[in-house]
Amino acid sequence: MSKTVEFFFDLGSPASYLAYTQLPGICRESGATLVYRPMLLGAVFQATGNASPAMIPAKGRYMLRDLARHAERYGVPMRFNPHFPLNTLGLMRLLVAVQLHQPERFEAALQALYQAIWVDGLNLGEPARVAEVLGQAGFDAEALLAQCAELAVKEALKASSEEAVARGVFGAPSTFVEGELYFGQDRLDFVREALRR
After folding, report:
1. Is 35 helix (H, G, I), strand (E, B) or coil?
2. 13 belongs to the catalytic site
3. At the topology level of CATH, where does 4-196 sit?
4. Which residues carry out catalysis (predicted)?
């Protein structure tokens, strides 16, 4: 029976972007199923008393260099977003709306948004820019943005974030294999090993 990899993430986390570039390949190698679990990192931070490493100047400077090293190692494009930190509430609701209403297009939405934020460096705090990115990816931006206001969408994101905290998540990305938590994009070797066992 194939294993499942649960990927708890927030679009505003650069480390989540890097993990996103690697996890599909890792799962393909082992025949595992990758399950995307959008969560609101701000809510997780609030519930756990954690904060972004960028809030500590020395750690923030190191993080920028370390992210660049990993992007180079993975062979993926990455530009640290000049509009960081991002308020991702609307964006994460948008992903949940796609998951609920167009699950077959979820990965296309995820790719478009990650590209816009962590490669193109766009300000997705601007609704017009979000609509533009969605339109270029073939989505009905107006309809999708309207779905973000649905109670079911809001509740699903809240529930996922609360579940993450209940399971020990304190930051992003957080990956689970058979109930075991692996935090950070620099721990993907442990995910790979867990899938081989």
Report:
1. strand
2. yes
3. Glutaredoxin (3.40.30)
4. 13 (nucleophile)
Q: Return the amino acid letter for 178.
A: E
Q: How many CB atoms lie within 10 A of CB 18?
A: 24
User: Which burial class, exposed, middle or buried, applies to 4 when counting CB atoms under 10 A from its CB (0-12, 13-18, 19+)?
Assistant: middle
Q: Which one from 2, 13, 30, 161 is the annotated catalytic residue?
A: 13
Read off the pLDDT of residues 72-121 as tens digits, 9 standing for 90 and up.
999 999 999 999 999 999 999 999 999 999 999 999 999 999 999 999 99
Name which of 4, 176, 163 is nearest 187 in CA terms. Answer: 176
Tokens read off for 144: 């999708």
Written in H, E and C, the secondary structure of 138-149 is CCCHHHHHHHCC
What ranges make up the beta strands (E) of the chain? 4-9, 33-38, 174-177, 180-183
The size of the chain, in residues, is 197
Burial class (CB in 10 A: 0-12, 13-18, 19+), 41: buried
For 134-177, the three-class secondary structure string (H helix, E strand, C coil) is: HHHCCCCHHHHHHHCCCHHHHHHHHHHHHHHHHCCCCCCCEEEE
Across the beta sheet with 180-183, the strand order is: 33-38, 4-9, 174-177, 180-183
